[in-house]
Amino acid sequence: MIQRRGASLEALEALYRSRFDVFVRVAASVTGDSERACDAVQEGFATAVQKRRSFRHDGPLEAWVWRIVLNAARSDVRRAVPAVAYDEAAATNGHPERDAELRVALARLPERQRTAIFLRYYADLDYAAIGQALGIRMGTVSATLNAAHAALHMQMEEVRA
Amino acid sequence: MTTLGRARLDRVLPSTTGSPDWDDVMSRSREHSGRGRRRLVALAAAAVLLVAGTASAFGTVRDIVRGVGFVGLPPLGAPPSAAERGELVLFYWGPAAGNSDYGRYGVGKSRMWVYADGRLIFLREAAIPEGANPLFTGFLEQRLTPEGVELMRSDVASRGAPGHDQGEPVPFGMQIEIRDGDRLVRIHRASNLAALVERLTNPASWLPASAWEVPEIRAYVPSRYVVCYGGRPQPIEPTRMLSLLPAPAADLLRAKEQKEQGSGGFYCSDATTEEARAIAEALDDGGAEQGVSGDDRGPARAFRPEWTFQVPGQGGETVGVFFEPYLPHGEWTCSPCG
User: Fold this and answer.
1) pTM (two decimals)
2) Which end of chain B has fewer CB within 10 Å, C or N?
C-alpha cells in the first residue's frame, strides 16, 4: 500500500490565513502575550513549511501544525521569562471586569490542561486532534479536560469565596 | 461544571496585535533551511558523487566519504570502517594544532585515536577544511602503516612515558594516553609539551611517506551507534520519557536493551546504522525541535544528531535524544564536549 506523505504549501498557507487569529490567541495562552505568540506562530508555520514533507496524513494537518506551533511557543517561554501573564493582558481587551475570575483560574492551570481547554473550546479541535497537537493519547485528552474542568470549578469557587 | 464557550474564552485571551504575513513565514522557513544546510552539504555532495560515479563500482563508495566529514548518519551505501573492532594504542584529547589556548575548556579542541591496525581517527574544532560544517570536522580517518603506528607511539613514549617525572605537567583539559601492555595509561608529564601537541595533532607534518598506508583523509563510517535519551535539567523516569517521544521512535527504543549512563539519568542503547536511521527518521517526523541545546560554540546539532522534546507543563523540562558513533575500541565519545 502506498502511504500518502507530505503536506502541500498551498494547504499550509490556507490554514495559516484562515486560522491565524486562533493560532495566535491560543499560543498566547502559553507565551503570556500576543506579540510573542505571534512570533511563535510565525516560527511554527515556518518550521511546518520546512518539514512539510514529513507530514504523514495520520491525522488532520491542523493538529500536526498545532503541535509544532505549541512547541515554538513553549520554546519561547523557555528562552524568555517563564510567566503566564495573559490574565493581566486580557484586562485591556475591553472587558476588564467580566470573566476576571475565569482568567485567574485559567492562569493557574498547568500548561497542558490550559492548552487543552483552549484547543477544545476556542480552536474547536476534536479529542483526536487535541491528542495529536499535545502528543498525548485520546484517553489522556479526556482525562486532562476533566481535570481542567474540576480545577477551574474549584478555583473559581475559591475566587468567589 | 464550569461553562466554557468560544465567546467566553475569547474575552479572557489577549487580543491579537499582529496580522497574517505569509511572506515572513516563508522567509523564516528559508532561514531555517539555511541553518540546516551546512549539515546537508556533505550529504548532498556525497549523493552527487554517488550518481556521477555509479560506473566505477567500488571506487565510487570510497569517493562518497573521502575528504569530507559528516555529522550524523553516513550516506547510504558508505562502507563502514573495517574492522569493526580494533585495539587502541594512543589517544589524545586537547587543543588542535596551532591553538595555544589549550587550557581553556571547549576551545578548538581536537581528539585522536590511533589503533594497532593502523587506523588514525580524529576530529577537530579548528582548521577544518574537510569539515562537516564550519564548527566541526566530524570523525575523520586515515591509515598508518605498522611503521607509522610505531613512530607515533614511540614519539609519545620518548617525550612522556608513564612514570616520566620530567618536563611540563599535562594541563587540565588535556588527555594523552598510551598503551602499556594490556592497558592504556595516562601521561601526566611530558618534555616539550607544545611540540608534542603539534606532532600529535598534525602527524602529516613529520611522519615520512612510508608511515602512511592511506594518507588521504576520509570520513570515519562507524558500524554501530549509541542512541541515548535523558531528561533536562532533571532526570525523568525512562518510561515517561519514552511516552513523550514520537510513537515509532519510542517503540524502537523500547525494543532495545537500555543501560543507564552514569548517574545522569541518560539511558543508552546500541543500534546498527539501519536501526539508527529508523529511529532518527521517526524523531524527525515528530515535529520536534532539533538541537536547541549547545553552548557558545553553536547548537549541539552542529556536532551530533540531537533532538529535544518539551515535557508538557510549565517546568521547562525537556527530553533530549542523541546519537554518537561507536569507535573501533568499543567506546563512544561526547562529540559536543569540546
Assistant:
1) 0.56
2) N
Boundary residue ending a domain (B191, B219, B247): B219
Same domain as B229, residue B179: no
> Cβ distance B200 to B178 under 8 Å?
no
CATH number for the domain harbouring residue B145: 3.30.1560
Running DSSP on this structure, what letter comes out for residue B326?
A: B
Q: B314 in contact with A at a CB cutoff of 8 Å? A: yes
**Angstroms from A1 CA to nearest CA on chain B:** 19
| A146 part of contact set with chain B, CB < 8 Å | no
Distance from CA of B60 to the nearest CA of A (A): 29
| Closest by Cβ to B4, choosing from A17, A75, A117 | A117
Cell numbers 477551574 correspond to: A152
Which structural domain, as residue segments, surrounds residue B304? 224-325
Q: Which of A86, A111, A149 is opposite residue B312, by nearest beta carbon?
A: A111
Domain count for chain B, please give it: 2
Nearest CA in chain B to A88: B14
Residue-range domains of chain A with CATH: 9-160 (1.20.140.160)
Whether B32 is covered by a domain: the verdict is no
Cβ-based contacts of B294 with chain A (< 8 Å): none
* DSSP code of residue B332: B
The answer to whether B312 contacts chain A (CB < 8 Å) is yes
Q: Strand B109-115's sheet: what is its strand order?
A: B183-186, B175-180, B88-95, B109-115, B119-124, B140-144, B212-219
* Beta partners for residue B140, in sequence order: B122, B219
The answer for residues whose C-beta is within 8 angstroms of residue B147's C-beta and 6 or more apart is B210, B211
- Could you tell me the mean pLDDT of each successive run of 10 residues in chain B, 338 residues long? 75 77 88 57 36 30 58 84 95 75 55 96 79 81 96 92 77 86 90 88 93 92 94 88 89 91 85 91 70 56 83 81 94 84
Regarding whether B166 and B103 lie in a shared domain, the answer is yes
